[in-house]
Amino acid sequence: MDEHANQEPAEDDAKANSGDGRNLIVLFAGFLLLGLALGVLLFGGDLIDRIVDGDGDSNSESGDTILDQAGGLPALEPGEARIIRGVNNAGVLSVGDAAHDFELDDFDGNRIKLSEFRGHPVIVNFWATWCAPCRIEMPELQKAFEKYQDDGLVILALDQDEPIERAREFFYDEMDLSFTPLLDDGSAVSTAYSSYSVLPTTFFIDHNGNVAAIHRGPLTLGQIEGYLEQMPG
User: Fold this and answer.
1) Of 216, 164, 220, whose CA–CA distance to 190 is shortest?
2) Are residues 213 and 106 part of one domain?
3) Domains held by the chain: number
4) DSSP string for 84-136
5) Which of 133, 157, 163, 176 could share a disulfide with 218, CB 3.0–4.6 Å?
């Protein structure tokens, strides 16, 4: 009896150790499959092709990492400007910065350049036809334009990447506006001015071409006049 009793625990221990080994193998295989699946999700089928074709060895010999192979944006020297579709995009604008220059077409196909209005107070307004606060704000901009255009006020209203027919109908027929609308195709200028996330957004540019104020959200005539009074010159 004692001899059989001693053998049974030993056999149980062997089975347990064997089961633990199988569990470790299954666990390792699971992690391996999970890693492969993540690799496919992140890098596509090219990862599998490299493994099968053996390209991984040649890549490792060249010293390139996955990030190196993916490439990236060209590096900019400090203070160097990047030109994107006519936009002088040197970074996020703050009050006191020189406004990024840009060239865009108005609704009649005329090319309009911001820097052409140097010496004038300029309001650069970002809007879209689907923007309800923009619809509320537009009459206020019109009032300001009618009141101060003889003093040289310029209002450039940049529509955000919409068909010209829809933008023209909204601007002229629905809102009856007379300041200058521009087509910001691809929202290139909006991106440079970091205004794409909040509409409307308005930049007040002084006669030297510098940002005098930035307002996010709809404006009233009183607020517009307050910003204009703060502008130098």
Assistant:
1) 216
2) yes
3) 2
4) ETTEEE-S---TTSBPPP-EEEETTS-EEEGGGGTTS-EEEEEE-TT-HHHHH
5) 133
Q: Are residues 38 and 103 in the same domain?
A: no
User: Does residue 108 sit in the same domain as residue 132?
Assistant: yes
Show the domain range for 119: 82-230
Order the strands of the 180-184 sheet from edge to edge.
Answer: 111-113, 103-106, 180-184, 154-160, 122-127, 201-205, 211-216
Q: Identify the bridge partners of residue 122 per DSSP, sorted by sequence position.
A: 154, 205
Q: Under 8 Å CB-to-CB from 21, ≥6 apart: which residues?
A: none
- CA triple 213-215-217, angle to 5 deg: 170
Instruction: Report if residue 52 sits inside a domain.
Output: yes
Q: Are 131 and 219 found together in one domain?
A: yes
pLDDT at position 196: 73
Q: How confident is the model at residue 51 (pLDDT cuts 50, 70, 90)?
A: very low
Burial of 107: CB neighbours in 10 Å, binned 0-12, 13-18, 19+? middle
* pTM (two decimals): 0.63
Asked if residue 9 and residue 109 are part of one domain, the reply reads no
pLDDT by residue (tens digit) across 11-27? 555 454 555 555 555 55
The rounded Cα 131 to chain-centroid distance in angstroms is: 18
- Distance of alpha carbon 68 from alpha carbon 52, whole angstroms: 21
Q: Do the beta carbons of residue 196 and residue 94 sit within 8 Å?
A: no
